[in-house]
Structure formats: structure tokens, C-alpha cells
Amino acid sequence: MSQQSQKAYEEFLPLLRIDPTKIFFDVSPVEIWLEIGFGGGEHMLEQLARNPDVAILGCEPFMNGVAKLLAHLSPQDYARVRVWHEDVRYLLEFSPPSYFSKIFILFPDPWPKKRHQQRRLITTDFITKLLPTLKKGAFLHMASDDSSYVEQIQEVLYNHPFFTLCEGPSSADPLTWGERPEGWPKTRYEQKAVFQGKKCAYMIFQTQGDFS
């Protein structure tokens, strides 16, 4: 970690870290978004710049990623940024109901080895825990460059009773994967995948029905 990132981590994380006993944001933004696994924060920072009336809660368990975000975050955005530096599953246990208008899960760890795939984030159980925190009509943005993980996402969400597929490939075959949707900021992991010649699958879902 660079000296600048270390300094940002030590100075600013205490200001922005989620306290489960308090309300998440002191401001009243138009919408509150959640990014799960923000990596180095590239996508989150661009969304903050594009959407000045939106607050974003970012989850990232790795110190280097959190430090990179904090080192590039503008002080004027502190009021509308919060960081959860642990597993997102714990965050969902005390998140308010019908809270998030949009969620990003971009290039989650694919755990490509078969014996490790039970560690993947996107499971029916996880989505069941996530649903109560979403507003009705909320959007869920997902992306992956791993075909077996795309297949798992499709199995979990494509026929889910409380989600409608707005955009996404018809199968887990990379030949059916389209281009990145317009206005979709790149992440460092996406750029790495593209550099390696991989295709990426982009999926957008919207909540529907009564899931309270």
C-alpha cells in the first residue's frame, strides 16, 4: 500500500465506516445505492461524479481496495459515502427494509475451482436475504466474465418470482453475450478481463411484486 493510501485509510475510514447502531447517512439523498465488492473504487467514484444527488454505500473487505477509494474520494462527497469493511451478509442483517434503489455486484470472485464454488456470493439464500433491503422497482446490476458463474446467476435470478430481467444474455455461452450497456462505467476487473481477450456478461434486473 502506498503512503498516500495508508494515510487515507487511517484518517478517513473512521469517518465513513458504517456504525450498525446509528443511521447510515446523516443527509437525505434522493436515492441510496449499494455496491458490493467495489475493488479499487473506480466504478463507485464515477457513479458519485455522475449522480450528485445519490448516496452510495460501498462494501469491500480488502484493505487495499478501501484505501484506494478513500485516497481518491473528494471530501465534499464524505456525507454521501459510507463504507462497510466486512462481509456484506452481516450488513444485510441490520440494513433498513426497502432501503436501496440500486445495487451493483460487478465481477464478484468467480471461485472457478469446483470445490470452492459454494463460496460464491450469488446464491438463492443470499438473494433471499438481499430482497427485503430493496425498494420495489429497485435495480440490480451484475456482471461477470466467468461462464460458469453466469450460468449460476441465471439459475438463481432469471426465473426468480421477484425479479424481472431487463437486460442480459440468453445463455451462459459467451457467444451470446452482448456489449456493455450504455452508461455502464468500467471496473478494473473488467478492463483486465477484456485485456485478456475475455467476453463479459452484463445483466440488469428489476424487483417486482410484493416481497415484504
Short description:
It is built from seven helices and seven strands; from the N terminus they run αβαβαβαβαβαβαβ. With 212 residues, the protein is an alpha/beta fold.
Overview features:
alpha/beta, Rossmann fold, 212 residues
Write the layout of secondary structure elements.
Blueprint: H1 3-16, E1 31-36, H2 42-50, E2 54-59, H3 63-72, E3 81-84, H4 88-94, E4 100-106, H5 124-130, E5 134-144, H6 147-157, E6 163-167, H7 188-195, E7 201-207
Parallel strand pairs: 1-2, 1-4, 2-3, 4-5
Antiparallel strand pairs: 5-7, 6-7
Helix pairs in contact: 1-3
Write structural notes for this entry.
- This protein is of the alpha/beta class.
- The chain has a single domain, classed as Rossmann fold (3-Layer(aba) Sandwich), CATH 3.40.50.150.
- The protein has helices spanning 3-16, 42-50, 63-72, 88-94, 124-130, 147-157, 188-195, and strands at 31-36, 54-59, 81-84, 100-106, 134-144, 163-167, 201-207.
- It has a 7-stranded mixed sheet with strand order 3-2-1-4-5-7-6, with helices on one face.
- Helix 1 crosses helix 3.
N- and C-termini, Cα separation: 43 Å
Helix/strand-derived category reads: alpha/beta
Can you identify the CATH superfamily?
Vaccinia Virus protein VP39
Instruction: Work out the helix count.
Output: 7
Order of helices and strands: HEHEHEHEHEHEHE
CATH topology: the name is Rossmann fold
- Largest sheet features: 7 strands, mixed
Show unreliable segments.
none
- Please identify the top-level CATH class: Alpha Beta
Overall average residue pLDDT: 92
Proportion in helices: 25-40%
What is the strand arrangement across the widest sheet?
A: 3-2-1-4-5-7-6
